[in-house]
Structures are given as C-alpha cells and as structure tokens.
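ok so for the tutorial part 2 we go from a plain amino acid sequence to predicted structure tokens. step 1 is just haveing the sequence, like this:
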Amino acid sequence: MSEWKEYKLEEITEPIKETYNPNGSDEYAYIGLEHIEQESLRLNSVGISSDVTSNKFKFLTNDVLFGKLRPYFRKVAQPQFDGICSTDIWVFRVKNGFDQDFLFYFLANWDFVDTANGGEGGTKMPRADWNFLKATSWNVPPITEQRAIASILSSLDDKIDLLHCQNKTLEQLAETLFRQWFVEGVEKTNKIYLGSVAEVGTGKGLLREEFIENGEYPILGANGEIGRTNKFLTDERLILTGRVGTLGKVYINESKVWISDNVLIIKPTNEQFFYPIYFSLKKIDFENLNIGSTQPLVTQTAVKNIELNIPSNELLNEFSIQCFTYFEKISKNKFQIRTLTQLRDTLLPKLMSGELRVT
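step 2 — the prediction. this is what the tokens look like for a chain of 359 residues:
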C-alpha cells in the first residue's frame, strides 16, 4: 500500500452549498432525507421543488448526497439527475485527482459514517459536524485503483437496480390486472367491507434500549425501516400501512421483523383476498381517513370499513393465481437483492482499507 497516500477530507472533497430559493418559476427534482433509504444507498422516491418553501441546495448529476442529520442512518445516494435537496443533506463533489464514483462508496463506507457520527453536534437532533470531519485523515489509493474499486462496487449496484426495476414491472403487471378486473369491471363486482375478510390490528412499541444498531431484524414504522433489533414480532406474510405520522404507504412483509405500534397490520382471513386487499389499499387516499389533529392518524375501524369491489369467485381465484406467480418472482428477486447488498457491504470496507486490492 506504499502508493496509497494520506489526505485530509477537505483535500478530497467539501460540501457544495449552491443555494436555491424556491419561487415557483422553475421545476426541479427535490430530495429530502425522507427520499433516501436508510443504509441501502438508494432513493425510495423523489419530490418536486413546487412542494418546498424554504431554501435548498442545488446538486448536479453524479453528486453524492450525504444525510448529515442523524448520520448513523447512513442515508447516502448518488442521483443520476440534477435537482435540489434539503439543507440537512451535504452535497459532495470530488476535487482534482479523485474519482467521483469512488467518493460515493468512500462516504458510504461504515468507517466514514461512524466517524461522522462520532463528531456530531447537537443533542436532540444530532448532526454531523463538517468542522470536525474536514480535518480527519484518510488513506486513499491512486486514481486508477479508485476507479477499479468503484467499478466493482457499482457493478453490484447495477445488478441490484436491475432487480428493483424487474420487481417494479412485475407489480405493475399485477396492478394492471387488478384495475381491469376490480375497478374498470366494477359493474360485475360485489361490494364487501375489508373488515369482513381480514383482521386489522397494530404492531407493538419497543423501548429505546431495545433498538440495536446492527440488530438481526428490522423494525418497521409507518414509512418503512426505522431501526434494528435482536428480536422479531412476526414472520407472517402481512399487509402493512401507516397508522400514525406517515400515511399512505402500503407494503407487504413476509420476513422476520418487529412491527412498531405506528403501523396497521392487515391479515386476510382467506389467501385469495390477500392481493385484492393489497391493491385496493394502494389506491386509497388515506388523507380522507385521517382524523388526527396534531399529527396524521388512521384508526383500525376506518380501515375495516373500506369497501372492496370483489368479482366472481372464478376471477378472484384466477387473479390470486396470477398474482402469486408475479410475487413469487418478486420474492426471489428480493432474496437476490439482499445477497448482493450483503456482498457489496462486505467488500466495501475491505476495498477501502486496502485489505483487498484491485488494479
């Protein structure tokens, strides 16, 4: 590793603070912390600038976005488009002599994330401190090895992205079928209440000390994973949606997880109703069910009283069979995604430390 050199972080990169003041005249993609998945290095969605009112930072294609609020969440992404982002996100671009894709993985490495977390300021809302981080020292390989490292890791991420795209397409196919049989063919359906064909309940709260940083099982909140723990509440296949706080996200879980009490759990009493309920909930505007005053809230009763359009038993069974085929492939793809993600995150620190060398 004699060709590796030590640099201060500020010699490699520093935050770009080009400010954007929203005035409604332009339309940009907007990324807030809520749009960056925890730990996965992916975006889960993208907002629009017309929905924001306060000053933001501009970013360019390939810039690295690093969530500085609660940095231990490892919210790091590299958008392939221009846009604006929350001021709780750092925008990083390399200086001369360094590779931009290498920078992405360098900043996503747990060694850097842990360092950022260790130098955080604030108490209730801890933030990474640039004045602390800029002086930290890091060993960095020559530019050719930087590019080789980035190439290996990005090839894994490309495969992960492809599998995510496949899953999105498969679910869209199932959703199209649902729309044709359960929505457009509504005159041929019967109406029933969701509560007549499914149990509706909530998850359970966890004490703060039961949150484990690298715990074995995810803790699911209204908008997805909110932490990890070493015990699980269920491993059943269930439909989940937010009860308090974030409303409208509907997703399927079929692995060992802890489900928080901010989540509504829908368990169909008959398997053939699983996908009709899932897609029916996805098209619901949950704001119409919101009874919260200080924060959004949806009750179990409101969900039980949702009306479902159900076609003939023959179509219902056929729909369930076709959906099962689509979602079985989705499950297999999810397993591959987890495997590839684990491989990437295993290789990442080894490549960044020089324990594993590439040329």
